[in-house]
Amino acid sequence: MISKNSLLMCILTVVMIAYLAFSLPVTADMARRDTLTGIKVNVRDTLMTHFITPADIIRESGVDPDTLPQCRRSVFDLYSLKSRLERSDKIQNVDVSLLSSGKIFIDVTPMTPVARVFEKKKSYYINSQGKKISADIRYHLDVPVVVGHFDSIHPAQRLLPLLDHIARDPALTALVSTVCQERDGNIIIVPTIVGHVINFGDTADVADKFARLRTFYRKVAPERGWQTYDTVAVKWRGRVVGTLRRKKAPEVILPTVSEATGEFDFDDAETMTDPRTVAEGMAEKPKIAEPI
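User: That's the sequence. What structure does it adopt?
Assistant: Structure tokens below.
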């Protein structure tokens, strides 16, 4: 006859076996579900600059996608990953989350460069907030080039109001090829329209200066000829001033990092008066001052 103790032991053994038969597969499934399954990157490149790609993001993250299945979700440090990506000079905003599928999801808004700066022997991009973005030979962005002399008094960041205004206007983006800053801080714009340069002066009244320049292109240049002036200045408030060309326009070679921007002299300039007066055909005939 089986004793009560023996019967109890048999029951406990059966219960233990049943528990193990149920719990082991469940535990294995839970362990499998706790591992990461991959990484997904979304780049919000609304301007289609292709400045940074998902592959670049993964490389910047320091995460090896091949080893992710060996990592547990519960212990993976998403905060450290986000902090690492935020230190990148090519990323403006980043969000990192874990999807129900076990994938790490990285949502990135890249920096948007507004110009490329050539300063002495180094080159970098700059965004509208003045953040420097390292240049890479793997890509090239069609943004205005900034060259010239930069120092603590006239840093490259000083040009941001001008560059930001250009970046927000597709027509100006197409017009402006190069922005040059001279030693005294005077700003010279080299347009894609060959034959002249634009003396912009400083970054004050940017919108008004471009409005006057548009008036010159629409009303004055077609009337007097596109090769009449070698310099068009909008630096003085309310006026457009043109320097008459004394000889045939030379071939324009855009400045590079190793080329000087040159100095411009506007002493022998013809004052066109207010653009509205010119548009009405009331401007005086051009007068050329004696050569300096």
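The two ends are 131 Å apart (CA to CA).
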